[in-house]
Design goal:
By secondary structure, the chain is α+β, with helices and mostly antiparallel strands. The protein contains five helices and ten strands. It has a six-stranded antiparallel β-sheet with strand order 6-9-2-1-3-10. Strands 4-5 form a two-stranded antiparallel ribbon.
Length: about 170
């Protein structure tokens, strides 16, 4: 899978905290769970967290790919180069270069064959890799691996909390 260029920004659609509308800002800790891989994310090859390159996909277009009436109307914007710079801490060691952002094509079945989705915004679909259990260093204990993945999610949430907005109804 080809990497998304460092100069790009990616969007992650998330569930807004209950008080976001009145406060207009967000704490990183409120976003950490938004960087957990879903069951579907874990099964994808490679496992990745879905994001959208903002120069190719608007938040409204990205929203159209979610399930109907999805609560994911909070738009988190992250710079690809900052994602790649994240260094994870297992409690014992610091590990650089665990996260990457790659292009991920959306495919659907057409007459029995997998074809690329051509809906508006589909070309911006990409994924953050390195958040799954298999991507962390093997020499770590199960608990250290868990701490490392939690640290990665916390750092992504910190980046995301600095630049967010909401899709209007």
């Amino acid at each position: 899978m080809a990497p998304v260029p460092d100069v790009c920004c990616v969007l992650r659609l998330a569930r807004p905290p209950k008080d976001f509308a009145e406060k207009g800002n967000i704490l990183a800790i409120q976003l950490e769970e938004e960087f957990n891989l879903s069951t579907e994310d874990k099964k994808s090859v490679p496992p990745h967290l879905s994001v959208w390159v903002d120069s190719l996909t608007t938040p409204e277009q990205a929203y159209q790919f979610l399930s109907e009436n999805s609560p994911r109307k909070l738009v988190l914007c992250l710079k690809v180069n900052e994602i790649r710079k994240i260094q994870a801490n297992s409690g014992q060691c610091v590990y650089p270069n665990l996260l990457n952002v790659i292009w991920v094509y959306i495919l659907h079945k057409f007459k029995g064959k997998s074809v690329r989705d051509r809906r508006p915004g589909a070309e911006g679909h990409s994924g953050i890799t390195g958040l799954d259990e298999e991507s962390v260093p093997n020499e770590l204990t199960k608990n250290q691996k868990k701490l490392l993945r939690k640290d990665l999610r916390a750092q992504l949430a910190e980046l995301a909390s600095k630049n967010c907005s909401q899709i209007r109804d």
